[in-house]
Structure formats: C-alpha cells, structure tokens
Amino acid sequence: MNVIAKRRDFLLAARAKRQGSKGMMVQGRYRNDTAALRVGFTCSKKVGNAVARNRAKRRLREIARLVLPAHGREGWDYVLIGRAEHTAARPFSALQNDLIYALRKIHNQKP
C-alpha cells in the first residue's frame, strides 16, 4: 500500500467515485494499471485546529492500514477525508465498518 502525495492524484480522485459515511468521505479511482493500491488522507480546517486534524488523520491512517489489505483492490487510488466532529469522536470499530461499507459501495458503482 503506497501513499498518495501529489496534488494531481488527489484532484483526479476528487473527480472519480465517492461515497460518504458517518465518519468519513471516501473517494475511489481505478487507475487502469496493476500497481499496488494507493491511499491519501486529508482533513480540512472544518475538522478543527492542527491538533484535531492530525488526530483525525492518524485514525484514518490506522483504519486504512487494517481494512484496505482485505477490502481494497489493486490498481485503485483511495482518498479518505475526515469529517468535522465525527472522525475523531466516532468509535474505532464503527470507523472500520464505515470504510468497509464505503469501499463496497464504490466498487459496485457503475463507471
């Protein structure tokens, strides 16, 4: 699992499929190659100050580390976006279920 770091890749994912859940928004894009899946994380200032944004991103990173190897697909880019007041406060198991639900919906959407 690689990390998305370039703005261009974030913008491409923003125009692709998306699915919201209580704890996060997930954007998914198929890249047409067989490379490993990539994941990016972002939280806007709506989530809170720098401490709150970093806490939310840490939780998203850990959930991605646990869920994506089993439920993600090769050749896809995923961007996990934190939600104000929900990402940091939601129980960890509920966030995991949110990500699994969002991935299932993204993979089943028509192009």
Automatic annotation (TrEMBL):
InterPro entries: Ribosomal_Su5_D2-typ_SF, Ribsml_uS5_D2-typ_fold_subgr, RNase_P, RNase_P_CS. The keyword Mitochondrion does not apply. Its EC number is 3.1.26.5. Pfam families: Ribonuclease_P. GO terms for biological process: tRNA 5'-leader removal. GO terms for molecular function: 3'-tRNA processing endoribonuclease activity; ribonuclease P activity; tRNA binding. It catalyses: Endonucleolytic cleavage of RNA, removing 5'-extranucleotides from tRNA precursor. Keywords: Endonuclease, Hydrolase, Nuclease, RNA-binding, tRNA processing. PROSITE patterns: RIBONUCLEASE_P. GO terms for cellular component: ribonuclease P complex. The keyword Transcription regulation does not apply. Consists of a catalytic RNA component (M1 or rnpB) and a protein subunit. Belongs to the RnpA family. RNaseP catalyzes the removal of the 5'-leader sequence from pre-tRNA to produce the mature 5'-terminus. It can also cleave other RNA substrates such as 4.5S RNA. The protein component plays an auxiliary but essential role in vivo by binding to the 5'-leader sequence and broadening the substrate specificity of the ribozyme. This is Ribonuclease P protein component. It comes from Epibacterium ulvae. The gene is rnpA.
